[in-house]
Specification:
Elements (H helix, E strand, L loop, with lengths): L1 H13 L4 E2 L7 H8 L7 E7 L6 E4 L3 E4 L6 H15 L10 E12 L4 E10 L4 E9 L6 H24 L4 H4 L2
Parallel strand pairs: 1-4, 2-5
Antiparallel strand pairs: 3-4, 5-6, 6-7
């Protein structure tokens, strides 16, 4: 009986951790690329994901990785686009063109230290641009450390996939 109580107590204390992604921070390179588009205004509509309402990615057997506010990863990327456009002074809710997006793929390998993202951005003018990025980061053999590093690495991975979308030569036609 004592062993059973001890095992149950250990199981309850073990639990799993939840790892929060850092809040999005704009990229100076992305803002510069957006400003190069000239004097245009862009609205941002809803971003979805192929896996609807995906709010967490499991990291080993240690615990899930989630966005800072528990929103979906697609919404996290939507807000990132808005932040970048606001700082570039291109965002307007009354713009003649609205972009929406779909997070086609989000994958994590905490063993090799890599986030894989594929994003498609669509315009109300009928055009679209897709981009993929594999963002590598330093990982660890230890699950707790590896998952914490994975969570900290999603924000720069999102910066990179946004960069690939907005520096795509077809993006200018998407927003004009």
């Amino acid at each position: 009986m004592k062993k059973l109580i001890l095992l149950m107590s250990m199981a309850m204390l073990a639990g799993c951790s939840t790892y929060a992604v850092d809040r999005y921070s704009i990229s100076a390179d992305n803002v510069t690329a957006l400003r190069a588009l000239g004097d245009i205004k862009i609205n941002v509509g809803e971003f979805t994901s192929t896996k609807p309402n995906l709010r967490e990615v499991n990291c080993r057997a240690v615990g899930p990785i989630k966005t800072p506010d528990g929103d979906s990863f697609a919404h996290f990327i939507q807000e990132a686009f808005i932040d970048e456009l606001q700082i570039a002074e291109l965002y307007s809710t009354t713009a003649p063109v609205t972009i929406t997006g779909n997070l086609d793929h989000i994958g994590l390998s905490s063993m090799s230290g890599r986030w894989d993202l594929t994003l498609t951005v669509n315009s109300t003018n009928g055009q679209s641009v897709s981009a993929s990025d594999s963002y590598s980061y330093t990982t660890s053999f230890f699950g707790e450390t590896a998952c914490n590093q994975a969570a900290q690495s999603l924000m720069p991975a999102v910066q990179n996939v946004i960069s690939k979308v907005i520096t795509n030569p077809d993006f200018a036609g998407l927003v004009k």
